């Protein structure tokens, strides 16, 4: 006797098994395993377009749960309440921040949670489904934000239409006046530059110091000697023409200056004075490495215009040193001449006259000492 297989029962069993397997996999995927769950509610002030039940919930980028329910707030239809289920040990605190993010090429929305302070309090355990409030800007799309910005701009323009129209009219009036006076614009700009101290930079004016003018003298025979570069105070080591007012000395005459720094200028002119007085070939600048020779050493004490007396003043001390460095003789020299503290040409003329006096005295005195020693 043949037995008949219960095909209907077998088919029903297989269908139930497959359905149970799919249900288990779905539950396992959406329940993050078999961990205990805690429910929270999240309040959104704006739209949550694309957010659906089962959407992931991430905490600092790690999945901790999913959305279980979405609904409109009963007391305010403009708000959306999302219920989420997350693992019970998720470190959600009172200051946890809520946001929306979009993943993948299709931009699937997910709810994001971000830490907060480690010492911030947690929600009381007796509170059922605690409420988290998302930032009001969460959910605003780029298009919506652009529309709101344009609306605000339109409101501003509407409210300020009168002042804007007046400003444009003023600009037109100014442009018309500027066009009428365009031929005088360069003159106006030059005047403003002059008033503010700007404009083209003035060219530098260089002046030389004149050596004493005297008739050529016959060559005098003395042992060779050198004129060292004079030493000067720091303030005088400059090309500027200095002016002293009371006890204060400062550069004067704008761009006018000496051809060289004061020490080099005096050295060159003193040597020229000796040469013109008949010592050509016996006087020179010291050369490093040469054997020691007799030396004329000069310490400058003054080389300036004294504004209160309107005179040029030159003062220095001079010493004659032997080839062994012994002081043979020494003397002070000082001379003045009328000059101007405001006219550079008159100032230079005063310096020339004062230098002629001290250079002549220096050459005469040094020549006598050098011939005797």
Description of the molecule:
By secondary structure, the protein is an alpha/beta fold. The chain has 2 domains: 37-119 and 126-139, Beta Barrel (Elongation Factor Tu (Ef-tu), domain 3); 206-370, ABC-type transport auxiliary lipoprotein component (Rossmann fold). It is built from 6 helices and 16 strands. Strand 14 (294-306) and strand 15 form a beta hairpin. The longest helix is centred in the last third of the chain and has 29 residues, at 344-372. The radius of gyration is 50 Å and the shape is elongated. The model has no long low-confidence stretch (mean pLDDT 84).
CATH class of the largest domain: Alpha Beta
Which architecture of the largest domain per CATH?
A: 3-Layer(aba) Sandwich
Largest sheet: 7 strands, mixed
Please give the number of β-strands.
Answer: 16
Write down the Rg. 50 Å
Structural class: alpha/beta
Q: What is the string of helix and strand elements? A: HEEEEEEEHHHEEEEEHEEEEH
């Amino acid at each position: 006797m043949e037995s008949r297989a219960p095909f209907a029962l077998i088919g029903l069993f297989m269908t139930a098994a497959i359905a149970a397997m799919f249900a288990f996999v779905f539950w396992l995927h959406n329940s993050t395993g078999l961990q205990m769950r805690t429910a929270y509610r999240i309040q959104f002030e704006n739209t949550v377009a694309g957010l659906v039940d089962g959407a992931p919930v991430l905490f600092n980028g790690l999945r901790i749960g999913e959305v279980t329910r979405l609904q409109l707030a009963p007391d305010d239809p403009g708000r959306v309440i999302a219920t989420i289920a997350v693992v019970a040990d998720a470190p959600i605190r009172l200051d946890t921040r809520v946001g929306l993010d979009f993943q993948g090429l299709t931009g699937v929305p997910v709810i994001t949670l971000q830490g907060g302070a480690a010492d911030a309090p947690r929600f009381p355990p007796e509170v059922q489904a605690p409420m988290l409030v998302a930032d009001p800007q969460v959910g605003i799309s780029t298009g919506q934000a652009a529309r709101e910005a344009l609306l605000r701009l339109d409101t501003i323009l509407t409210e300020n239409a009168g002042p804007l129209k007046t400003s444009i009219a003023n600009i037109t009036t100014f442009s018309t006046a500027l066009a009428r006076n365009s031929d005088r614009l360069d003159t106006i700009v030059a005047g403003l530059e002059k008033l503010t101290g700007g404009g083209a930079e003035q060219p530098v004016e260089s002046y030389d110091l004149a050596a004493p003018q005297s008739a050529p003298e016959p060559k005098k025979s003395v042992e060779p000697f050198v004129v060292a570069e004079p030493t000067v105070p720091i303030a005088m080591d400059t090309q500027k023409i200095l002016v002293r007012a009371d006890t204060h000395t400062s550069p004067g005459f704008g761009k006018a200056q000496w051809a060289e720094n004061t020490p080099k200028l005096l050295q060159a002119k003193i040597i020229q004075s000796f040469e013109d007085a008949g010592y050509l070939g016996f006087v020179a600048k010291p050369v490093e490495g040469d054997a020691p020779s007799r030396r004329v050493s000069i310490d400058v004490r003054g080389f300036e215009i004294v504004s209160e007396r309107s005179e040029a003043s030159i003062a220095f001390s001079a010493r004659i040193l032997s080839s062994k460095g012994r002081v043979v003789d020494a003397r002070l020299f000082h001379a003045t001449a009328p000059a101007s503290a405001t006219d550079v040409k008159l100032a230079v003329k005063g310096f020339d006259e004062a230098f002629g006096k001290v250079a002549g005295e220096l050459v005469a005195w040094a020549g006598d000492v050098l011939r005797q020693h």
